[in-house]
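Good morning C.,

I know you're traveling, so I'll keep this short. The sequence:
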Amino acid sequence: MVPKGWYEHTLDELALVERGKFSARPRNDPRYYGGHMPFVQTGDVTSSGTYLNGFSQTLNEAGVGVSKVFPKDTILITIAANIGDTAITVFEVACPDSVVAIQPYKDVADVYWLKKHLETRKADLDTQSTQNAQKNINLQVLKPLLILTPPLPEQKKIAQILSTWDKAITTTEQLLASSQQQKKALMQQLLTGKQRLLDQNGERFEGEWKFLTFDDSFKVANKKSAQVKSSDYLDSGSVPVVDQGKQLIAGYCDNDDCYTNVPVIVFGDHTRCLKWVDFEFCPGADGTQVLNTKEFLDKKFGYYLLCHTDIPNLGYSRHMRELKEQDFKVPVDMAEQQKIAAVLSAADQEITTLQQQLDHLKQEKKALMQQLLTGKRRVQIN
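The tokens, ready to paste straight into the viewer:
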């Protein structure tokens, strides 16, 4: 049902829709590159947010002559590989034929509103792609795309509201990135002894540090009877399953035999993922290594030591043998270990809080877009 005052328009009724071009062969011929014109390709669009935030190559005059140039405030949309990713240009760009340029007609469509609408059509466009060497769509799919269109003043109001949410998300992303960078710097300083913290008396720790091997510092605490095959993971259950994947909890089970002597450290033998697990759990069966620290090493400090250890990437080979060959620089004083761990834990908590705020903002914005861009929720026009 079309909301009152709204109309259905095709995309090419709202905007000039043109495919990019780069006719030079071979495409990597260096004679066309290295000038002043940004040459924006699918990866550049995919890695951007609302606005195009970078480009990997530039074209010289010869390159511009065999390409197609589009102005600022053009919506770029990818039509090959990653279908339907979009970004608004903030400067003049050239594009190849794997990118389509959408230039909204200013009297019928607001660029920000149209960009946000196209974001909601990504899955729809993907289902219409053809599968050759790689997925792709063409102008015959894009131009007749039906778009539920409010009057221009309402578009601009919707764009203003969504822009406010985008700014809040961007600010939170920047705070998160800053906190992650600060934690990285802290680890570099604190886990090498370059910066010493204050003890309980307000004095700098001055105790010695010594080098230890993996076997001096850690012990492998695998318990085969508690392991769960990935095919046996449940969507819900009484016991979380922690494996070597990126997510902290990979699934659930109802096993009686589980790890109760926690916290422990989980290391992904294939993935090199490290996790601090402070709840009862069962480990995944494949490549999940459960580690504990020796008595003189604080557990949380040991976890951060491992996080700060550079383990070479061997692909899907096993990395435990690489970890066991590492040496670790450790303060002898357990109180200093615990103080370092406490500072890094506080940094982790700040990162977790910001990540939760970011996830919440994105979820709220997604729900709001669903309401505003379909007319289920109408805005007041001043």
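Safe travels,
E.
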